[in-house]
Amino acid sequence: MLLHRPPPARASTRSVACLFALLGPLLLGGCETLSSVNPFAPASTSAPPASPETALADTAATIPYVPEIRIDGPEEYAAVLRPLLEKASRLVTLADRAPTSLERLRRRAEGDVERAVKILRSEGFYKGEARYRLEEDPTPLRAVLAVTPGPPFAYGAYRIRYQNAPVPTPAGFPATAADVGLTSGARARSADILDARSRIVARLGNSGHPRATVLDQTAVADFAAGTLSVDVVVDPGPAAVFGDVRVDGLSSVERELVDDFVTWNRGAPYRQDAVDALQKSLIGTRLFSSVVARPGERADADGTLPIDVRVEESEHRSVGAGVAYSTNTGAGVNTYWEHRNLLGQGERLRVNLKVAEIQQLLGATAAKPAYLRPDQTLTGEVKIERDRTEAYVQELIGSSVGLERTFGSTLTGRLGLSAEYSRVTDERGARTVQILGVPASVTRDTTDNLLDPTKGARLTFATTPFAGVDDESALSFWRNRLTGSAYLSVDEASRYVLAVRGEIGSITGISRRRVPAHHRLYSGGGGSVRGYGYQLIGPLDDENDPLGGRSFAELGLEARIRIGQSFGIVPFLEAGVVDESTLPAFDENIRYAAGIGGRYYTGFGPLRVDIAFPLNPRGLDDPFQFYVSLGQAF
Question: Given the DSSP bridges, would you call strands 241-248 and 304-313 parallel, antiparallel or unpaired?
Fold first, then answer.
């Protein structure tokens, strides 16, 4: 039985062109000559009183109900609208708090109708309509928000008019919809129109006009044609060129460091993106707790504009420690001391000490930012290391030097030179290895967080040619690795995140037997395929010790589910294979594992506890592996 069906609220009630104010004061306009109807005005949603024969008695303590959103339209429109409607609907979000009367339920539904109409308009469905109804039959009571989107409006004309601008309009000034990211004929979304407005100011700011402002923006909806045309009035402001960089707040950091990150010359046309890049680079040094870079308040008569940089220095020294544990490799402790301003220009020195059951390491890394150019860092490392695994025992002294350069905000390239002297004991016995390498890599990283990413992807290709000698003869081989991971937030709050990781590697130019054991490829253990012993996936010798291989492949999948603010659970599946040949064979030697983990989220990253089980174990594999560490597995 239908209890209540008020008249629909419409996104527009007249099929005529209408000048309207888009999102309140952001777009100014009127309807003086076209119509008095405003498509963005709140819709009338008052419902007639319920009649005695259809009204549900308001005498119950609460009115429990089941919310439902029905969208009468193509699935592609429903896919766009449903998440927005569900998030905005009080019927949905307050369903577990039943109202105490039918009248309060009606008010809740009427508010949903108003919000639904606003969502329809903001998504370009100006002819759409919404209504609610309460249905008692079949039980339980259903509160239905019924939405009919109608056909979407498309962008019509997009016109930009400049006031106080040079004639002719200078190159670099946006003039068309395409210049500001709009596509003619696309669905006319309010958010896209506002983004286009911001892009106008940004484009002008990167074309020598730091004071550009939008004076007015109006839109005309043609309900007969189903189009939305936009007119924007812009004052570009006076042209400016870069002047002096004025820095305030430096204490122990030398002024030269700031100058090293400046990418423009005095007298060059002003570019806002260059100023933003300076601010980002200074923040990236970790020398400052606050950095603000912006144009000065006043330009000289010739248009020269100073740039003001205000900084607050942070502490430059820090110490830290971390712990890790797994059932196969045992416990380990890693400590460090770091100085981030060693000589006054942001030089970093970090000393690490790692003590674990299978590895002991003492090392130091150094970095000189803005080396020869603002986007380049000089790096160096020295280390003394001892490893004792089931695959090999090694004692090593190594060093490396390299250059690291960023290309934009997501791409990083590295090129270096490494040298090592080691004593290695493997299935062939003990031997001395002296070897040089030329490591090179390129990384693309679009993730949002280093230790706990929720969206984006990482992809790294690393290659190193090696040459040297051991006790037998000369060595020469090439090692390549491709590693990728991707992250997808299922919900807006990133409480549900799907994560996938894959890696493949290959060694060419030499037989497996001749490859020094610590340079071979292995799989198994934490950070690899959980559920199997450290390095135990792949070929084994007669004593079931791992031999490593010339190729390997791994795949991992996680579902990261956050519970409350501080806790989470992570079920996962992983697989890996190691092969003696230069390319892995995806055959019966692939090892599979599954597990579940707990996460405790801290301010510096999640604390990770995992338990994993081999799905196709061999006789030597333990029934499970247990891991404790900091940060996500990948």
Answer: parallel
